[in-house]
Amino acid sequence: METVALQASVREGQGKGPSRRLRSAGRIPVVAYGREQATLNLSVSSDQLRDILLSERGRNSVINLQVEGDGNHAVMIKEFTLHPISRKLVHADFVRIDENAPIEVRVPFRATGKSKGEIAGGTVLVNVREVKVLCAPNEIPIVIEADVSHLEIDDELKIKDLVLPEGTQLNESPERKLLIVVPPRVAEEDETEEDESEAADGDADGDDAAPKSEAGSTDGSS
After folding, report:
1. Would 79 be classed as within a structural domain?
2. What's residue 215's pLDDT?
3. What's the predicted TM-score (pTM) here?
4. Maximum separation of any 2 CA atoms in the chain, in Å
5. Are residues 107 and 90 part of one domain?
6. Is 206 helix (H, G, I), strand (E, B) or coil?
7. What is the per-residue pLDDT across 131-185, written as a single tens digit (0 to 9) for each?
8. Do 10 and 76 fall into the same domain?
9. How far apart, in whole angstroms, are the C-alpha atoms of residue 197 and residue 214?
10. Which domain covers residue 51, as residue numbers?
C-alpha cells in the first residue's frame, strides 16, 4: 500500500488566538505522538487532510508526515475534530506507527448480494458497520465484504463467518452478530390494522345505540 505525503510545519504558539489565525490561513493545529518520541505540535493544510479523510482508505491511510526541519514520520490519523456547525476540520491527532508491526484498525463492513430471505420478503438488518482487525499497515483492507445470497429468513452472520485477506486477523469477539435476516411483518401489521378497525366499529355502534334518557325525562315531566 502506498503512503500519502502530507506537509507539516512546526506550530509556534498555542491557544485560541494562534489556532484561530491558523484556520484563517487554511491550516489547522495537529499533534503527532507515539513510539516513545516527543510530541510534536504542528499545523497542516485542512484541505489536504480533508482529502485524505475522504479518500478510499480514509482514516486508515498511512501518511508520510513531512515535518519541516524534523524529517519524515510514518503516522496514521488517531482522532479528528469537526466544527459543530460548519463541519470543517478544526484539529487532528496523528500517531506514529511502525510500518512493519501489526496495528489495530477498524475496517468498514459491507454485505453483498441479495439473500434468499429478502427474495422471500424478509429484510437484512446490519448490526455492525466496522470490524476491528489486526494487520500490518501495508495490509489494511479497504473494506471487508460478505456474500449473503445464501442466507434464509432467520439466518444470521457472525464475525467468525468472515473470510479475511491473508495477513489480517480479527481482533474482537467471534460471536459478535454482523447481521440477521428478519421475516416480513406484513401479516402481523394487517392483523393489527383489522383489530383496530373492529374496535373503531364497535365504538361507533355503541355511540349510535346510546339511549337518550335525559330527553325522555323531560317529556315525562311536561
Report:
1. yes
2. 42
3. 0.76
4. 109
5. no
6. helix
7. 999 999 999 999 999 999 999 999 999 999 999 999 999 999 999 999 999 999 8
8. yes
9. 31
10. 4-96
